[in-house]
Amino acid sequence: MALTSMVLAGPLSASPQQPPATFTNPILYADYSDPDAIRVGRDYYLVASSFHFSPGLPVLHSRDLVHWTIIGHVLPKLPFAPEYDMPGPHTLTDAISKPIGGTRYAGGVWAPSIRFHAGKFFVYWPTPDEGIFMATATNPAGPWSKPVAVMAQPGLEDPCPFWDDDGSAWLVHSRLGAGPLILHRMSPDGTRVLDAGTVIVEDKVRLPTLEGPKLYKRNGWYYIFAPFGGVSTGAQAVGRSRDIRGSYEWHTVLKPGTSGVQGPHQGAWVETPSGQGWFIHFNSTGAFGRIDYLEPLRWVDGWPIIGAPIPGDAEAGQPVASAPMPDTGSPPTRDRIQASDDFASPKLGLQWAWNHNPDDRAWSLTARPGWLRLNALPAQHLVTARNTLTQILHGPKSRITTRIDVTRMTDGERAGLTLFGVGPSWIGVVQAGGMRRITLASKGVETAGPPLTAGTLSLRADVGAEQTVRYSYSVDGKRFTPFGDAIPLARFSWWKGSRPALFTFNTGGAGGSIDADSFEVEQP
């Protein structure tokens, strides 16, 4: 139990001889997809889509816009439908990505928005199968109010609220499949829409796959920041109008250029107290998910231009590799996204999220203090097993090491360390006929290794920038033995990146458990 809580190094570089400090992109090499952010005073808050993981809707905090830490979640659990508890009957296996019967993979929290109004924080989000929801809090770390259905209908996405100078409230959103953009009047408290909505933007030729709108007002102009062109290779557009209802004139304000960032789009405009403009956006990277970049934003003739200049282009910028630290009025911090855990706390760390809602009767941090206990529930496949405990994968390289006690395992049980997603791979232990064997699995195919006679085992996953994982194991925690070849990670798993996780399940029915002593994340 010597492992202490660790956090990951961030993208800051500074030299006494060469001030000011600079940052390098990405600022978050982790799957904080569909980010939205605001400033309140000198504090910055960011929310991101979390889909079928629970707790949902993480809230991050920063003082310098570059270094972030998790402070809470809007949703303790996903209460929207029974399928978030994975009731079955199941149609998925570890070898396929669909059909997803009996689960809600790719459902849950899609692109959210966060705003501060009338002394409260408001977060809005869609679930594609159930509607548009909102919650409020006076403290962004929580607790948050129970979700309220603003629009209880499927097929909607990417809502953003807006309160105008006259006190009127509005909601803009898109439809599943991206587009058109629809505007509603809202009740002043933001809990319901007051009309059927009006299409204010639809241009499938010049603005295909328009989604993720964020609505702002500046100098009497209404601005809609919205990505177009799709997740992988889309760009960022901005529309402006003197009337919130339109019509809107559009510019493309951020595109790849020569940066090598193939799809820089969808995010948030924030201003520092000194008036500097910044834009946080994602870029899709395959197994590492949609990672986050920070770009300088400047205004020219009433239009934003994001990133570095593109020669010959007066409207759009391109992503920067590095830039001076934002002038936030706060010195650079050492905040980091939480990662490693020694399970010494009686509460689960904020870095963790279960695959779908957990069965809280089947895990504990108090049954054996200093260890995480996972009880095996019945399942035939890892992707249909409950209580798989995941966290975000950190790039461009990660080494994940865990130590587990397997003495409470029973026949039919599988347990170990996985890179979870579509077609998951894992290393762990399988017990059958009273014998335990170290086992490697990929896409449902298990390869049995040597028998395990020891009661504890260390498991390791080395994830490389090429988006593969190599597994190894150790009985003494010092000498690790490789098992198998490098395994490609799934490039996109129900809208999320690959995730390191602890798991156990039993193919013969409920029974058995493991205890995890530690979970260490390093970036070699």
Structure explained in plain terms:
The structure is a single chain. A hairpin with a 4-residue loop joins β33 and β34. This protein is an all-beta fold. Mean pLDDT is about 95; it is low at about 1-10 and about 10-15. The strands form nine sheets. Strands 5, 27, 30, 31, 33, 34, 35, 36 and 40 form a nine-stranded mixed β-sheet that branches. A seven-stranded antiparallel β-sheet has the order 28-29-41-32-37-38-39, with no helix packed on it.
Query: What characteristic shape results from the CA principal axes?
Result: globular
**Straight-line N-to-C gap:** 22 Å
Q: In percent, how much strand structure appears in the residues?
A: over 45%
Total E-strand runs:
41
Major β-sheet, in short? 9 strands, mixed
The overall pLDDT average reads: 94
| Radius of gyration using CA atoms only | 23 Å
Structural class: mainly beta
Quaternary class: single chain
| Low-pLDDT windows of residues | 1-10, 12-16
Helix proportion of residues, in percent?
under 10%
Count of alpha and pi helical runs? 0
Summarize the structure.
By secondary structure, this protein is mainly β. The protein contains no helices and 41 strands.
Topology:
Blueprint: E1 12-13, E2 22-24, E3 36-40, E4 43-47, E5 53-54, E6 56-62, E7 69-75, E8 113-117, E9 120-127, E10 131-137, E11 148-151, E12 156-163, E13 169-175, E14 181-186, E15 198-201, E16 214-218, E17 221-228, E18 235-241, E19 249-254, E20 265-271, E21 277-284, E22 290-300, E23 303-306, E24 308-310, E25 313-318, E26 322-324, E27 353-355, E28 363-364, E29 372-375, E30 377-378, E31 389-390, E32 398-405, E33 413-420, E34 425-432, E35 435-442, E36 445-451, E37 456-463, E38 468-474, E39 481-488, E40 499-506, E41 513-522
Parallel strand pairs: 30-40
Antiparallel strand pairs: 1-2, 2-26, 3-4, 4-6, 5-27, 6-7, 8-9, 9-10, 10-11, 12-13, 13-14, 14-15, 16-17, 17-18, 18-19, 20-21, 21-22, 22-23, 24-25, 27-31, 28-29, 29-41, 31-40, 32-37, 32-41, 33-34, 33-40, 34-35, 35-36, 37-38, 38-39
